[in-house]
Every structure is written in structure tokens, then in C-alpha cells.
């Protein structure tokens, strides 16, 4: 039953690329710890026999290899240049 | 004639027989929306111009004697996490503030092909994460029965717009009860199909192994009519099942006749659902069971032991999938306009853009990342998936003895807006999903039908607060479930509209 | 010092027409930025992946060709990480940590002379290519924004991971040549297209830390990069400096490996199965049906050339080293069946006229298989001499004319008229009297006289007939 620390939440925020303020870190840590403790319930379930259900699809039902162009602009951002999407710097 | 009071079936019939025009019908609805919206706040975008254009074009088609489609002229609202081409789809989030989809969801395309008119996009909890429609950038939607109370969620806009007579029916989405919960709180009918029956192409993913698009209507017959249009295998969604190309459901007189020909309906009341419910709610449900027994059904109490693990399993899976499904929202390809990427380093840009998610969404993404992180996959996600197979096994054996399993859709009555949020205890909010997540985890169909009202001292109109009866059937047994729902609806005669 | 090298090869399935999960074309090269994109590969909300059947088939072919086992069911996983070239901020790939789900495992490929060497294949998986990042000023460091093109996003890739069975960069080169040959023959990947094959390598020396080398742009450079890196590591070891476990980038311009610019935090990819793609049931018939569809593999083709056409192993090898060459050869045979002759013309003469760079072998060449067949036929039937034929070949590679028409035009038919020949021979006998004396004593020296006759007749004399007459004349008593 691991306690969830502020540092852990900060790291998870980084993994998920979400900027969290100090106030948010304070509030969320306790709440998230509560949620994880609840989810730890799963430890108490006798699950040795249970196999996860896996949906299946036959190979023959996969998509046929026929190219088709999309009519229209699939991208929504207004930050473009010569067709490229303008994104932030890499370094 | 107040055309906005008509059911979908009545509207379609009237337009087809040229009793009134689609244009007249849509006009009245748009007026109704204008009148009622300040109180209800169900709509994010009202599609007035196009809806009228489509109505006029339809009227012409009908005048010319052409086939206009099974739902010709019927106005539907669409939850704002389902893509309608050319109409902004916000998911009630800043992250999609300026997003206009360049394609129609399959369910929307099928509705359009059937002649239905999309009258607008309706409110939801941000990215469908919530049970009250309070987690929305567009402000909370209010329960038409008592506008100081929540309409349920996350498809609150869908249920409220239908209950408030702003449209004949609506499409919502149900990941852990998000169609049934608001249907119950707003006293309308809401159905979650068997997983794989209805295409998810165009539904903005929250938890893709759990969710389905589901119809909301004022009658069981209307819900069946919408199912007939949207259900069926879709080549754009490989998780749709090949259960015959396009299934056809009926409710109403046909169903009644069929019901009489069929053997006695076997009904099981899941005691775990009733035991955890507000006594006032439990009372209504027991009353509902009596009603069914009087209609000739064989009713008895039964048990579904796995219920106690379902919330932990549901939230593990939902949050895990959500953390990954929402990763794409980095504002680079689409999103919102007022954050220019120039000058930012990419990690900072992503983090800053994504700080615009609402609180509940951020929490779920973080918990989701936690349960999937290195070393925890076996402890949480895998176990949660194992719970699903235990649940399915138990349900399968129950469905050998019962045609439908019933219980309250929600364990509580609709509460005041802000009441649960002020407690700042997200976990407490999650507990209200206890009756609904079962059907999402196991994949079987479920429907909420109005069961009655409970007098509440604080209820605004004095008529009481709605209680919904939930029915579940075995997978792909929607027809059996609709038959039971129709039977109950006819006997209980709960359906009415709030004074607004 | 023990050197261990393992490879991670990425190969685009250019033989497949549409992307791995959507119907956009795979043919993205040369198109305008973001002109080859749809809601699905752009990662728009609400879109779902639709797995391409042919891609699975092609990956299955490669799997079998590399001796891998194919499981009854395959599945896809999400590899979750953020990067601007990744539209969904996760990559759809395959993963075996929770059970075998990838398209091939536990294979083995023999290579080198007579298959004397072999390398184990750990696994093979299908995954999607990300988009491309472009920097306006040309440099990552000085650009204030990045230009992103998603045309390539979603193109199917097969990743082939070997065990660290290599110890010599030269062997790596041989192995990669063999892999190239196989995927060309299977027609699943055109290795000549820019960026269609990439190879990362892992190398450790003397049991030290493992270094990953990335950004090697061609198979040829892999050997160079490895040699550099092995030297670097050995040098450090000899000075008792510890080699850091890290990722290094190959700098093609300076021909060195450099520390990676972007300090990547240790990645937690949070793998889980893709809920939108059900597990694909291949069934036991999959392997056999893929086998039937498979074009002939290079080794099998080489054996057939040796067996059916009686070619030497060396000639056969040269032909199959480049599939187009082997195809050219067999195409020529259809016009005129003279395998040894035609093979020889191709291997000895024609290749001299071809572009040195393998990818442009046939570029600028105006002739086709029918030309070579025609040439071989003319020589076989003694219509022209071998020397004349060589001349003609040199001409027609630029003009594209058929050899028969050239031969007719320049009246390059051999002089086999006894009278004309006799005249030439007499002339030579007159001027080369010393040689004639030689030849009377030593019959082999007659060839010198033949040479002179050929010179005199500008190569047009029928060498066989001329030689006969020369020998006859030599045997006559001297006059």
C-alpha cells in the first residue's frame, strides 16, 4: 500500500506533460493517494484463474490494401508554413 | 399544436404525412431552445441555420415524393464529444476550443442518411469524465425538473435537452454510465448498447474498451428507432461486431404483440444494487418490480457478487486508457488558437498547453499514468481486466436464469449543483457509478427507464425528483431488453414533461 | 577483446500501397508537406486504427524468410511517449513482455560464403513510422520553431532485432547485404528509396557497457560507424576509462559517433494493448498461405541458376546480388535461351557499362533484356565475332538500337568468303614472315597471325574460318 508522494505526482505530471502548479500538486497528491488506495482493492481479489478477455478478429477481415486520398485538410491549427505545421523548438 | 412535445416517431410520421412541415417543426424547436436554454444550458452550439436549411430541403424532397428516410425531419442533439463535420466539437474543453472536425462520425452519417436533422451539440463533463455535467467549460447543465440540481452526466446535455423538449432525441456516450445516469436523473430513456454494436468512429475516445454511443429519448420506442439507424457493423471501426449487417429493433405495438407470444419474462433484482441505494430510491425500485410482476413477469431477488470489485476495476481501466487517449491533445495539430508555439521549447509548450485541461481530467490522466507506469501493469491494469472476465462469467450464468437483471440506475437522487464538488472528494463522486459500470465492464447492454418520482422537500416543482429503473440483458439481446423496457413503460406510465 | 554487436533494423514496407492503419498512400516521397494525410494518421479526435491486411502478409513473409516462428495470434500495443513527430503521442507497435504477440520470434539467418555464418533473430515486429521534423535554418539549435510534416506518419515498418551475435563489423555488412537481398526479392521493400531502411546498432567491448548507435543513414555506413565506435571503446578501455552506457549519434559528415544532444530521461513507455485493434487470429494456415505467395528467395534462385542453367556459383551469385540483374537475365532467356552465354555477357561486359552506384544500376542504360538476347544469338550463330559484339554493345547502350540492325547496317557480318580471307591472310603472311616461321614450328603461335588478320580486316574476319585457312597455309610447304 504505497503512499503517493508529491514527488511522484510531479514526476507523473512530467510523464503526462501537464504543468502543475504548487497549489495543484498539494491538492492533487492527497486526492490521488486516496484514489490509488481505493484501486489497491484489486489486490484482495482472488484472480488466479481469471484470464483477461481478448477481443479477436480474423486475419481475412482486416482492411484491404487500397489507397484512397482524404479530400480536405485534416489539420486544424492555424500555425502553418508552406504546408508544414509550425511546432515548438526542439531544444 | 406544440410540435416540440412530439416524440420522434410522432414527428417523423407527421412530417412524412405532411401534417406539418419539417421547417415548422424545427422552427418551433429553435424557439423552444431560445426560451428554455437560459434555465437549462444544455447546448454548446445551436445549429440553427443549417438545421433550417436541411429542414427546407427535406420538405422539398417529401413534396417531390422522394424517400426521405426513417427519421426524416426528426431533430436530434448530439453530445459534444461526437464529431459532426463542419460543426465545432469541443468536448467541453479548452483543449478543443477551436476544433472543427473535417469528417462525420459514423453514427452521425447514418442519422443524416436517415433524414434526421442535427439541431445542435450538447454539453457534457469535459472529455466525458464525470457524472454531473458540472465539469464543463460551458458551465453546468441544469436538471429541467429542478434547475438547482444536476442533470447527471457525463451526457447531461443529451438528457436535459430531451427532457426539456428542446429536441426529440439525442446521441450521448456511455463509458461508465454516462447515458443512463443522466437519463435516470432527467426521467427520460437512455440506452447503452452491447460493446461493439454501435460504431465508435467519430466518438472522441475516453476509455475505448468500455464506451459506446447510446441514444436518449422520451420513449422506449424512440430509442429503438434511433438504434435501428445507428447500430450495425462499421468498416471504420474494427471493434464493431459482425452480428448481421444492420440489426432491426422494434418496440411499441409490434413489441407488445410479440411479448404476448413469448414466454414469461424472467426478471432478477440485483440485491447489491438496491442494498447500497438511498431508501427512497430503493422503494421506487421495489415498486417497479411489483409493477413488472403484475404484468406477468416472474420476478425475484438475485445476487451479483462481483459488484464489489467493479468500481476499482472500472476506474483503473478508464483512467489508464484515458491517460493515453488524451495524450494527443498537445495543441500542435488542432486545439485552441491563443498559444503560439514559436519560441517555446517543445516539452514546455506541451506542458503549458495541457495545463488547460480541467481539474478532473488532469487527475484522471495522472492516476492513469500511475497505474500503467513501470512495474504497476500487473498490479492494476491486468488485474482490472481479470475482474472483467469474472464479472462476465457471473453474468452469463445469471442470464441463464433471467432475461433481464434490474436495479436502480443511480443509488441516489439528483443532488444540488455544486454540492458534491464543494466536498472536494473525487473518490466520493466515483461511488455513484456503482450500478452502471457493470454493463461497461462486461460489455452487455443496459437501459434506464423512468420509474417514478420521489418527493423531496427542496424539489422546485413539487412533483418530486426522478428515479430511473435500470435493466440489463445478455450481450446482443437488445430486443429482449427493449421488450421488457416497453412493457414496464406502458404499465408504469411515468412519462411526463417538466414545467419549464 | 570480446566485441558484441546487435542490430535493430527498420524496414519500410514500400511494397504495400496504403499506410498501416489508414488508407493514405505509402508513396509520400516528393509530395507537398502534409498533402498525404488523413484524420486517422494525423491523430484527430475520434479516429480509429484500421489494420492493413497486406502489411501483415508482407511482414509474415519477412518473418518466414528469416526463419522466425509466427504466433497464432498477433496484437498491437501502445508505446506511450511525447514527441512532435508522433501524432497521437503514442506509437502503435508490438510488444512481447506479456506474451508473444509480434509477427516473428526466434529466427535465424545464415549468410556469408556458403552460409558459414549465422545470426539469431530475437524478434520481428510491425509498427508505424512517425512524421518528419524539418528545420528551416537547417539546424535544430537555431530554429525558433520546428516544421512538421506528417506525410510519413503511419507508413508501415518492420523492425528486425538480432541477438548480439556479431563480433566483426565486416560480418554485419555481409548480413545486411543478405537482408537487403531477401527483402528486395520478396518485393516488400525497395531498399534504394531514401530512408526505406535504417539500422541502429548496439556494441560493447570486453564486457563493458553497451552503447547504442543511432542515426546511421545507410547500411554501408553501419560498418564504418561500428569500426569507429569499437576503436573508441577499445581506446578508452586501454586507458582504464569506463565506457558510459548511452546512445550516440553517427555524424555522417565527420564520420564519428557523438554523444546524444538531447538528454533523454529514462523513458517509461507504459505499454498496454491497443483496445481499438482486436487480437488478429492468423491461424495455422497463415504460414502456409504466405509461403505460397512468397516470391523466390535469393538462395533458392541462385541454386536454381546453378542447377537448371549450369552457371558457375560465382556468376550466379553476381546475378542474384541484385534482383533487377537476375530479373534482366531471366527475361533475356525468354527471348533466346542461351543461359551461359547471356549470363556471361551480363556479368562480364554489360556491368561495365552500368552505374557504379547500385541504386542507379540501370539508369541511363538504353537497352533491355531483348538486346542482350539478340547479341548472344548473333554470336552463337557466328554472324558476328565476339570482338565485334563487344563493340556493338558499347554502341547500343547509348543508342538503344537492336544488335541485328547495327550489324546489318555497318555490314559487320563476318568475312567468311574464302577468297577475301585468303587475300588478307596472304597479306599478313607477307608482312609477318618471322611470325610465320615461328608458327610453322609452333602451331599455337598461329593465333598471333590470326590476330593480325583480324586487325587487317578490322575485326570482320570470321575467326574460325580464318584460323582454318591460316593453319592450312602453314601446313603447306613454304614457298
Keywords:
heterotrimer; A: 91 residues; alpha+beta; Histone, subunit A; two-stranded antiparallel ribbon; 2 helices; 3 strands; 31% helix; flat; C: 479 residues; Arc Repressor Mutant, subunit A; eight-stranded mixed β-sheet; three-stranded antiparallel β-sheet; 15 strands; 38% helix; 17% strand; elongated
| Range of helix content of chain A | 25-40%
| CATH homologous superfamily grouping of the domain at 1-46 in chain A | Glu-tRNAGln amidotransferase C subunit, N-terminal domain
Task: Give the overall shape of chain C, derived from the CA principal axes.
Answer: elongated
Supply the helix-strand structural class of chain C: alpha+beta
What's the multimeric state? Answer: heterotrimer
Strand fraction of chain C: 15-25%
- Please tell me how large the radius of gyration of chain A is: 23 Å
Q: If you consult CATH, what is the topology of the domain at 1-46 in chain A?
A: Histone, subunit A
- Could you give the distance between the termini of chain C? 78 Å
Radius of gyration of chain C: 30 Å
| Biggest chain pair interface | A-B, 51 and 67 residues
What's the number of helices of chain C?
15
- How would a textbook summarize the main sheet of chain A? 2 strands, antiparallel
Question: What secondary-structure arrangement, pairings included, does this model have?
Answer:
The complex is a heterotrimer of chains A (91), B (500) and C (479).
Chain A: H1 6-15, H2 22-39, E1 56-58, E2 80-81, E3 84-87
Antiparallel strand pairs in A: 2-3
Chain B: H1 8-16, H2 22-40, E1 43-46, H3 48-63, E2 75-79, H4 106-113, E3 117-122, H5 156-163, E4 169-174, H6 180-185, E5 189-192, E6 212-217, H7 220-230, H8 253-261, E7 266-270, H9 271-275, H10 279-294, E8 298-302, H11 307-325, H12 346-354, H13 359-372, H14 378-401, E9 404-408, H15 426-430, H16 437-442, E10 446-454, E11 465-472, H17 478-492
Parallel strand pairs in B: 2-3, 2-4, 7-8, 7-9
Antiparallel strand pairs in B: 1-3, 4-6, 5-6, 5-10, 9-11, 10-11
Chain C: E1 3-12, H1 53-65, E2 73-74, E3 77-80, E4 90-93, E5 104-111, E6 117-128, E7 132-134, E8 146-149, E9 156-162, H2 169-185, E10 197-205, E11 211-214, H3 219-238, E12 246-251, E13 256-259, E14 272-273, E15 279-281, H4 285-293, H5 298-309, H6 313-321, H7 323-335, H8 339-349, H9 369-380, H10 386-399, H11 403-409, H12 418-431, H13 433-441, H14 446-456, H15 463-475
Parallel strand pairs in C: 11-12
Antiparallel strand pairs in C: 1-9, 1-10, 2-15, 3-4, 3-14, 5-6, 6-9, 7-8, 10-11, 12-13
Helix pairs in contact in C: 1-4, 2-3, 5-6, 6-8, 7-8, 7-9, 8-9, 9-10, 12-14, 12-15, 14-15
Amino acid at each position: 500500500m504505497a503512499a503517493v508522494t508529491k514527488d511522484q505526482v510531479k514526476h507523473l505530471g512530467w510523464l503526462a506533460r501537464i504543468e502543475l502548479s504548487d497549489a495543484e500538486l498539494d491538492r492533487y497528491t492527497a486526492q490521488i493517494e486516496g484514489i490509488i488506495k481505493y484501486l489497491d482493492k484489486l489486490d484482495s481479489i482472488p484472480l488466479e484463474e481469471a484470464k483477461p478477455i481478448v477481443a479477436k478478429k480474423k486475419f481475412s477481415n482486416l482492411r484491404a490494401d487500397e489507397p484512397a486520398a482524404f479530400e480536405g485538410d485534416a489539420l486544424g491549427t492555424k500555425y502553418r508554413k508552406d504546408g508544414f505545421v509550425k511546432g515548438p523548438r526542439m531544444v | 399544436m406544440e410540435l416540440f412535445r412530439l416524440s420522434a416517431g410522432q414527428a417523423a410520421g407527421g412530417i412524412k404525412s405532411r401534417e406539418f412541415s419539417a421547417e415548422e417543426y424545427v422552427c418551433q424547436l429553435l424557439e423552444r431552445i431560445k426560451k428554455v436554454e437560459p434555465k437549462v444550458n444544455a447546448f454548446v452550439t445551436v445549429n440553427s441555420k443549417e438545421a433550417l436549411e436541411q429542414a427546407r430541403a427535406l420538405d422539398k424532397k417529401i413534396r417531390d415524393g422522394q424517400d426521405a428516410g426513417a427519421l426524416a425531419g426528426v431533430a436530434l442533439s448530439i453530445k459534444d464529444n461526437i464529431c459532426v463535420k463542419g460543426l465545432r466539437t469541443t468536448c467541453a474543453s479548452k483543449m478543443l476550443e477551436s476544433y472543427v472536425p473535417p469528417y462525420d462520425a459514423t453514427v452521425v452519417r447514418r442519422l443524416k442518411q436517415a433524414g434526421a436533422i442535427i439541431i445542435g451539440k450538447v454539453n457534457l463533463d469535459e472529455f466525458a469524465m464525470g457524472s454531473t455535467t458540472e465539469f464543463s467549460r460551458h458551465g453546468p447543465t441544469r436538471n429541467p425538473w429542478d434547475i438547482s440540481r444536476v442533470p447527471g452526466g457525463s451526457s447531461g446535455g443529451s438528457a436535459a435537452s430531451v427532457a426539456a423538449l428542446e429536441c426529440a432525441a439525442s446521441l450521448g456516450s456511455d463509458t461508465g454510465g454516462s447515458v443512463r445516469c443522466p437519463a435516470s436523473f432527467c426521467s427520460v430513456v437512455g440506452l447503452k448498447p452491447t460493446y461493439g454494436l454501435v460504431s465508435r468512429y467519430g466518438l472522441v475516445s475516453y476509455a475505448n474498451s468500455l464506451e459506446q454511443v447510446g441514444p436518449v429519448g422520451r420513449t422506449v420506442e424512440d430509442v429503438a428507432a434511433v438504434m435501428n439507424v445507428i447500430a450495425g457493423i462499421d468498416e471504420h471501426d474494427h471493434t464493431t461486431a459482425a452480428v448481421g449487417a444492420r440489426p432491426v429493433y422494434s418496440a411499441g405495438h409490434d413489441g407488445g404483440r410479440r411479448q404476448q407470444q413469448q414466454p414469461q419474462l424472467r426478471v432478477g433484482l440485483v440485491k447489491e444494487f438496491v442494498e447500497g441505494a438511498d431508501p427512497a430510491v430503493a422503494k421506487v425500485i421495489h415498486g417497479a418490480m411489483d409493477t413488472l410482476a403484475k404484468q406477468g413477469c416472474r420476478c425475484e431477488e438475485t445476487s451479483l457478487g462481483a459488484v464489489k470489485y467493479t468500481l476499482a476495476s472500472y476506474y483503473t481501466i478508464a483512467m489508464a486508457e484515458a491517460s493515453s487517449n488524451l495524450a494527443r491533445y498537445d495543441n500542435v495539430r488542432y486545439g485552441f488558437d491563443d498559444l503560439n508555439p514559436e519560441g517555446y521549447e517543445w516539452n514546455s509548450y506541451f506542458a503549458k498547453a495541457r495545463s488547460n485541461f480541467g481539474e478532473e481530467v488532469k487527475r484522471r490522466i495522472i492516476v492513469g499514468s500511475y497505474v500503467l507506469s513501470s512495474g504497476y501493469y500487473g498490479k492494476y491494469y491486468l488485474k482490472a481486466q481479470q475482474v472483467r472476465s469474472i464479472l462476465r462469467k457471473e453474468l452469463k450464468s445469471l442470464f441463464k436464469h433471467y432475461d433481464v437483471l434490474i436495479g436502480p440506475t443511480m443509488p441516489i437522487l439528483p443532488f444540488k449543483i455544486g454540492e458534491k464538488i464543494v466536498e472536494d472528494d473525487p473518490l466520493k463522486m466515483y461511488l455513484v457509478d456503482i450500478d452502471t459500470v457493470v454493463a461497461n465492464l462486461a460489455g452487455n447492454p443496459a437501459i434506464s427507464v423512468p420509474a417514478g418520482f420521489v418527493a423531496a422537500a427542496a424539489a422546485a416543482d413539487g412533483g418530486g425528483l426522478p428515479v430511473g429503473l435500470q435493466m440489463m440483458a445478455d450481450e446482443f439481446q437488445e430486443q429482449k431488453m427493449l421488450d421488457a423496457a416497453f412493457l414496464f413503460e406502458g404499465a408504469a406510465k411515468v412519462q411526463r414533461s417538466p414545467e419549464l | 577483446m570480446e566485441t558484441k554487436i546487435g542490430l535493430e533494423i527498420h524496414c519500410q514496407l514500400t511494397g504495400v500501397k496504403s499506410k498501416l492503419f489508414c488508407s493514405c498512400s505509402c508513396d509520400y516521397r516528393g509530395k507537398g508537406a502534409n498533402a498525404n494525410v488523413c484524420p486517422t494518421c494525423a491523430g484527430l479526435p475520434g479516429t480509429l486504427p484500421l489494420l492493413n491486411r497486406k502489411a501483415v502478409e508482407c511482414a509474415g513473409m519477412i518473418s518466414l524468410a528469416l526463419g522466425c516462428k509466427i504466433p497464432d495470434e498477433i496484437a498491437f500495443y501502445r508505446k506511450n511517449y511525447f514527441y512532435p513527430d508522433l501524432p497521437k503521442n503514442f506509437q502503435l507497435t508490438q510488444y512481447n513482455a506479456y506474451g508473444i504477440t509480434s509477427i516473428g520470434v526466434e529466427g535465424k539467418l545464415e549468410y556469408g560464403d556458403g552460409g558459414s555464418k549465422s545470426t539469431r533473430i530475437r524478434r520481428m515486429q510491425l509498427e508505424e513510422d512517425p512524421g518528419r521534423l524539418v528545420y528551416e535554418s537547417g539546424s535544430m539549435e537555431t530554429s525558433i520553431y520546428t516544421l512538421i510534416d506528417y506525410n510519413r506518419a503511419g507508413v508501415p515498418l518492420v523492425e528486425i532485432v538480432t541477438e548480439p551475435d556479431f563480433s566483426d563489423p565486416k560480418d554485419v555488412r555481409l548480413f545486411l547485404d543478405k537482408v537487403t537481398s531477401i527483402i528486395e526479392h520478396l518485393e516488400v521493400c525497395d531498399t534504394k528509396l531514401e530512408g526505406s531502411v535504417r539500422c541502429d546498432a548496439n556494441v560493447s567491448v570486453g564486457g563493458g557497457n553497451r552503447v547504442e548507435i543511432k542515426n546511421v543513414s545507410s547500411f554501408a555506413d553501419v560498418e564504418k560507424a561500428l569500426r569507429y565506435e569499437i576503436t573508441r571503446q577499445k581506446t578508452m578501455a586501454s586507458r582504464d576509462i569506463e565506457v558510459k552506457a548511452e546512445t550516440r549519434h553517427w555524424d555522417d559528415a565527420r564520420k564519428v559517433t557523438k554523444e546524444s544532444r538531447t538528454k533523454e530521461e529514462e523513458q517509461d513507455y507504459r505499454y498496454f494493448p491497443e483496445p481499438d485493434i482486436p487480437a488478429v487470429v492468423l491461424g495455422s494456415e497463415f504460414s502456409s498461405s504466405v509461403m505460397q505467395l512468397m516470391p523466390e528467395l535469393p538462395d533458392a534462385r541462385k541454386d536454381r541458376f546453378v542447377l537448371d542453367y549450369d552457371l558457375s556459383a560465382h556468376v550466379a551469385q553476381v546475378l542474384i546480388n541484385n534482383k533487377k540483374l537476375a530479373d534482366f537475365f531471366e527475361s533475356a532467356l525468354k527471348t533466346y535461351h542461351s543461359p551461359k552465354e547471356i549470363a556471361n555477357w551480363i556479368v562480364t561486359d554489360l556491368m561495365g557499362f552500368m552505374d557504379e552506384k547500385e541504386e542507379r544500376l540501370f539508369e541511363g542504360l538504353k537497352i533491355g533484356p531483348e538486346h542482350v538476347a539478340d547479341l548472344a544469338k548473333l554470336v552463337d550463330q557466328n554472324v558476328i565475332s565476339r570482338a565485334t559484339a563487344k563493340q556493338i554493345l558499347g554502341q547500343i547502350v547509348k543508342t538503344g538500337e537492336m544488335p541485328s540492325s547495327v550489324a546489318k547496317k555497318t555490314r559487320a557480318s563476318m568475312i567468311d568468303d574464302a577468297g577475301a580471307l585468303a587475300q588478307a591472310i596472304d597479306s599478313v603472311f607477307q608482312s609477318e614472315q618471322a611470325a610465320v616461321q615461328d608458327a610453322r614450328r609452333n602451331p599455337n603461335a598461329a593465333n598471333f597471325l590470326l590476330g593480325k588478320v583480324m586487325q587487317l580486316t578490322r575485326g570482320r574476319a570470321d575467326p574460325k574460318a580464318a584460323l582454318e585457312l591460316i593453319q592450312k597455309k602453314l601446313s603447306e610447304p613454304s614457298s
